[in-house]
Amino acid sequence: ALVDGADSFEPAAADGDVLARLLWVRCARADEALKAADLLLRDPNLPLVVIDLKMNPVRQLRQISSSVWHRLARLLEPHETTVLVITPRPLVTGATCRVQCDHRSGIEDLARAPADLWPALRFSMLRPPAVAGAQPAVQAG
Q1: Tell me: the pLDDT tens digits for 97-133?
Q2: Whole-prediction pTM value?
């Protein structure tokens, strides 16, 4: 499932097979995205929920209470769902691990196909998982 916090996902760039299996929740604000995620995380049939807040205004992100992340983490406890939260800066308190994308995109990347851009991406682990096998929440920035 993809919770699109700023309605910025471009489905035309995705493979048709991926889209056939994707639940896409389009939101206009960060608070809407978190409410949608709250509902989705109650379903044990979703192995991965991505909450994309990268394009939301900083003002909206600052209004997110740390209790929201705690509540979402509690919803994950009885399930084996993994949550990936994409934010422009560290935001998720209690994230199991934190990963940073080291690729700095430029205007020339707009001309590249997504399939060509993916191999160029590099990630670094900012905070590794505290417990081996733990998978409740991951934050990418």
Answers
A1: 888 877 777 777 767 776 777 777 777 887 766 654 5
A2: 0.78
Cα separation of 123 and 3, whole Å? 22
Asked whether the beta carbons of 92 and 116 are under 8 A apart, the reply is no
Which residues make beta-bridge pairs with 50? 2, 84
Q: Using one digit for the tens of pLDDT, what is the confidence trace for 12-27?
A: 878 888 889 999 999 9
